[in-house]
Amino acid sequence: MRSSTSNFKRKLRLPRLFFRKPTEIESIHGGPPLEYVRPIPQLPWRGITVAVVLIVIAAASASELYCRSIGYGPTLHDNEDLWTSARRRVKPESIVIIGDSRGWYDLYLDELQKGLGKRPVQLAMGGSCAYPVLADLANDKNFHGTVICSVVPRLFIAPPGSPPMDHAEKAVRRSHTQTFAQRASQYLDMPLEEHVAFLKPEELTLDGLLKRLPIPNRPYALISPRLPPYFGTLDRERRALMIEKCARPGSELARITQQIWLPLFTPPPPPSYIPQEEFAKSMGQAIEQRFHDVAAAVQKLRSRGGKIVFVRLPNSGGLKALEDRQTPRPAVWDRVIKDTAAPGIYYEDSPDLAGFNCPEWSHLSAGDSVEFSKRLIPHLRAALQM
Amino acid sequence: MLFNSLTFVVFFVTVVAADFTVAARMLGGMFGGHPHGDAILTTREMLQIALVTGGMILVHWSLRDTNIETAVMRAPPWIVTTAWAFMACAIILTQGNSNAFIYFQF
After folding, report:
1. Which of the residues A76, A186, A188, B35 has the least number of beta carbons within 10 Å of its own beta carbon?
2. Which domain does B84 fall in, by range?
3. Can you give the pLDDT at residue A20?
4. pTM of the model
5. CB atoms < 10 A from the CB of A78, how many?
6. CB B89 to CB A221 under 8 A?
7. Cβ neighbours of A189 in B, within 8 Å
8. Where are the domains of chain A?
9. CA distance A179 to A191
10. Ranges in chain A, pLDDT < 70
11. In 3D, which of A319, A316, A300 has the Cα closest to residue A308?
12. Do A271 and B48 touch (CB under 8 A)?
């Protein structure tokens, strides 16, 4: 039997043999080069196959049981294809949530649907900048709905080429270029992810597990900070909910996650190959450009009858102190509201929104997200003149 | 041989790097072109690369006078079973991110 490998090898010889009919000698079984047959080693393959299948099933089951016993649960993973499936649900008059993970975890769709009369489409993404999605909606000539935009200043002004921008741009690009294979792959993947807990692409992969090895790095090495561990679940509608293990008072998972946010929200040192003044100048220009681009996108959206409201969602503890210090309210929030002349809801301005505590300093628990969303409704209705 | 070498170079340049400028920078770096570049690799990554590369050279060296089919035929069945099961478990652990059809996308 000719294997696919030998076919492939045969194809590699195309420049010499292209369209040439094999000679009689070459057609004889075993005669080089066209009749190469890969020898199958004489081994008890049936028994080996059964043993391998049993070992793999046992190992996968053991891994699943272990992962569940230490707190992992099945959940979908956010990626460009899942985002694209949500983007496809956006209708001309939809209410759309965009921005970062706070818009994802803190806004409970059922409550918003009750209060606003329409079920919002969840397009916010963890660790990403709102601008690429805002620009995409502004450029969508069919869209004239309502945008609820979460603002985390550090992410909102992330410069082009930075991970928060890349993340959002990749998702937007995928929504315009998704192939049938990518879409089919996502549909095949979802049932697996919804039932298997050890499928955690960023955490329980071979690479993720190797990252846990306590190997010290070079003291001068510039290493990206660690990403937070699994602390929430996601469904097909891209609704994110914090898991109970993280939301519990005094939770160890919450304490670990708090300490992960701090380096993640601290900008990396400027690159050594550019003079510092030049780097600071280029960053300043990039931020100015962002304010300008956001204002232009908002203007475009409004010219078609669309509406937008910016929301600053709760943060707590050391992360709130860090954000307030590094990106003070006048520097980003006030500037966005002033430049766009759009309504804004800053949670600290309203006593009914200000009393919430984020267990891991950045997001509300699942229970609190319901109550917070309920209390946010009157503010949203007023801001959007509904 | 020349054709194969050219194919390899073009493949390397177009697959690994986004464009020829980036590829030239990467190739320059491999030959000491950036002596004062920032250290961006973790120790674990460097160890991983060294171990995998060393392992591959070792396997190729040990098979220099034979081939994989003969080596598999000579190995006891339990070694083949273990290696196969290990590879299957490693594939599951590697967990593709909804790219199951990547080979149909070229």
Report:
1. B35
2. 41-99+102-106
3. 59
4. 0.82
5. 22
6. no
7. 98, 100
8. 1-39, 70-384
9. 20
10. 1-36
11. A300
12. no
